């Protein structure tokens, strides 16, 4: 992968994170070379987008349909009150460009489904699934496995959150864990913005680690947390040989692009 050079502005803007052990200028160049697709930019996905823009990812492709509502504003930090009744993507692109004009941001006023998933996610090096609709997350999982690109899947409910990183051919995919949408799954649920932002920030850090080959990602592990009592646990998860999505896939080589450390 060709790594772009850092500009004088890059070095000044990202100076403090360049001091991170194991990241440095090469990590920043890797991040700058990375394209990330995020499905939904509400409370969770919007935080992912903000953190990646602040960190200097090269390109963000953001998909989210619909207009902003007043009851979105307790958690959707990319949005603003003057955007109520207008497409969410308008507020999002304005906020992200104000935050970091050097990040290429593309917005698409669509939600992922079987008819558009290949088109929307087809240029991404890393996919982030942050949709409240479980079938949409399964679609993103299928696309990630089809293309062989990493997927960071993140979700929350009330004061709880969960997160895993999927490397097709090496780790369980989302379908290994949940072949069908859970019963009684509802896209509207109790939420504090602080909980959505917590899982979104953790997901953004997974993306940064994948892009920069930094640290150890949540590959083969599922992180669960409950902020009601501040407990964080990780559990090992395994691929299912009979998985309808990834079961027949051969193991990926250990040096796959953007694989992160296991």
Protein described:
The protein is an alpha/beta fold and 262 residues long. The chain has helices at 8-13, 15-18, 24-32, 43-55, 88-99, 117-121, 134-147, 174-177, 193-212, and strands spanning 35-39, 59-63, 104-108, 126-129, 151-157, 160-166, 221-226, 231-236. The chain has an 8-stranded mixed beta sheet with strand order 3-2-1-4-5-6-7-8, with helices on both faces. Strand 4, helix 7 (134-147) and strand 5 (151-157) form a beta-alpha-beta unit.
Distinctive features:
globular, 262 residues, disordered C terminus, single chain, alpha/beta, 9 helices, eight-stranded mixed sheet
- Count of extended strands: 8
Our Rg estimate from Cα atoms comes to: 17 Å
Determine the strand fraction and express it as a percent band: 15-25%
Q: Helicity, in percent?
A: 25-40%
Structural class by sheet pairing and helices: alpha/beta
Distance between the termini: 21 Å
**Looking across the biggest beta sheet, what order are the strands in?**
3-2-1-4-5-6-7-8
The count of helical stretches stands at 9
Outline of this structure?
With 262 residues, the chain is an alpha/beta fold.
Helix/strand layout:
Layout: H1 8-13, H2 15-18, H3 24-32, E1 35-39, H4 43-55, E2 59-63, H5 88-99, E3 104-108, H6 117-121, E4 126-129, H7 134-147, E5 151-157, E6 160-166, H8 174-177, H9 193-212, E7 221-226, E8 231-236
Parallel strand pairs: 1-2, 1-4, 2-3, 4-5
Antiparallel strand pairs: 5-6, 6-7, 7-8
Helix pairs in contact: 4-9
């Amino acid at each position: 992968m060709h790594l772009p050079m850092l500009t004088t502005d890059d070095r000044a803007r990202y100076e403090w994170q360049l001091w991170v052990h194991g990241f440095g200028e090469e990590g920043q160049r890797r991040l700058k070379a990375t394209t990330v697709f995020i499905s939904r930019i509400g409370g969770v996905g919007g935080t992912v987008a903000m953190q990646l823009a602040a960190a200097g990812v090269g390109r963000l492709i953001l998909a989210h349909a619909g207009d902003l509502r007043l009851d979105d504003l307790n958690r959707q930090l990319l949005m603003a009150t003057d955007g109520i009744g207008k497409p969410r993507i308008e507020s999002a692109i304005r906020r992200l460009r104000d935050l970091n004009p050097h990040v290429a941001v593309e917005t698409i006023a669509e939600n992922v489904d079987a008819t558009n998933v290949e088109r929307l996610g087809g240029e991404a090096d890393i996919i982030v699934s942050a949709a409240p609709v479980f079938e949409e997350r399964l679609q993103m999982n299928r696309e990630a496995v089809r293309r062989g690109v990493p997927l960071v899947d993140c979700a929350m409910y009330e004061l709880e959150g969960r997160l895993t990183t999927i490397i097709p051919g090496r780790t369980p995919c989302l379908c290994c864990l949940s072949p069908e949408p859970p019963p009684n799954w509802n896209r509207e649920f109790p939420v504090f913005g602080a909980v959505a932002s917590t899982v979104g920030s953790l997901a953004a850090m997974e993306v940064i680690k994948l892009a920069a080959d930094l640290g150890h990602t949540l590959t083969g592990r599922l992180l669960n947390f409950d902020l009601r009592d501040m407990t964080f646990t990780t559990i090992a998860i395994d691929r299912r040989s009979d998985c309808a999505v990834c079961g027949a896939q051969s193991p990926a080589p250990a040096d796959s692009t953007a694989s992160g450390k296991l």
